[in-house]
Design goal:
With 258 residues, the chain is α/β, with parallel strands linked by helices. It is 41% helix and 19% strand. The protein has a seven-stranded mixed beta sheet with strand order 3-2-1-4-5-7-6, sandwiched between helices. Helix 4 links the parallel strand 4 and strand 5. The protein is globular and about 55 Å long. It starts with 10 loop residues before the first helix and ends with a strand. 45% of the residues are buried.
Length: 258
């Protein structure tokens, strides 16, 4: 993935958002890894690992994990936080150059930002052992909780900016077919809708802040509208009587034929 195709902010702002997102999503991610039979002693590759939170959490399940990401700042942060884990600056397009294959290859919220996600899936397959497992999680920005006007506009803008940058914010619904088309077997699919609690109630406003620069650069909205939208979402997030949902996430996994 070319760095300038990514719609969200990186750096410290991006790292903070990833930390809040991981806290919200790790319980369901761990569940599907267990469902896909990730076991102690296996090798695990986290593609598009960001600041390495899934990578580190996977090691707590007793696996040997490695994380790769194109963003040098994220990889530096991951290395500082988890010096016992191997992290590498690497594009998903270059996975064929890795000197080993893994029992499990995993990616979360990566493919929806790519111009050619099918090619990325092939790259991940090339890094997976025969009989190994590929696990993917990605968003489907097609439904907001609650159905407030500000959240509908937020969803529209998120889909638009990702589309302009070459991605697809509705990709989640296509993941299972992508694995089928790639020749995987024993494919499973699950849709996770997480209601935000605690710090994760900030995720929508944090994500809007994270894509604001890209939205402005692409001319999809004016700064005045984004400020107003942010304030409306912030008020919802701080209303204890309002349930806030994280964007639905499709979770799929399948096995590489032997």
């Amino acid at each position: 993935m070319a760095a300038n195709n990514y719609s969200l902010a990186t750096g410290s702002t991006g790292a903070e958002r990833l930390a809040v997102l991981h806290a919200a999503m790790w319980p369901s991610t761990r569940h599907i890894l267990e469902q896909a039979e990730l076991r102690q002693g296996m090798s695990f590759l986290d593609v598009g690992c960001g600041i390495g939170l899934v990578t580190a959490s996977a090691t707590e399940m007793g696996v040997t994990a490695m994380g790769v990401d194109l963003d040098e700042g994220f990889i530096e942060t991951a290395r500082k936080a988890h010096p016992q884990i191997s992290f590498k600056v690497q594009s998903v397009d270059e996975l064929t150059s890795l000197n080993q294959r893994y029992d499990f290859v995993y990616a979360r919220y990566l493919l929806s930002h790519l111009k050619n996600p099918a090619a990325a899936v092939q790259g991940m397959i090339s890094a997976t052992k025969a009989g190994g497992t590929l696990v993917l999680e990605d968003v489907d920005f097609g439904y907001a909780i609650p159905r407030a006007d500000c959240l509908r506009r937020y969803d529209d803008l998120y889909r638009a900016v990702v589309r302009v940058r070459g991605g697809d914010a509705l990709l989640g619904r296509h993941l299972a077919k992508m694995l089928t088309d790639a020749g995987l077997v024993d494919i499973h699919e699950r849709v996770q809708l997480t209601l935000a609690e605690g710090e994760s109630r900030r995720l929508t406003s944090m994500t809007l802040s994270g894509i604001a620069g890209s939205i402005l650069k692409e001319g999809l909205a004016e700064e005045q509208e984004l400020n107003r939208l942010y304030n409306d979402i912030y008020q919802l997030e701080n209303d204890p009587d309002v349930e806030i949902g994280v964007a639905p996430t499709y979770q799929v996994w399948g096995r590489i034929p032997t």
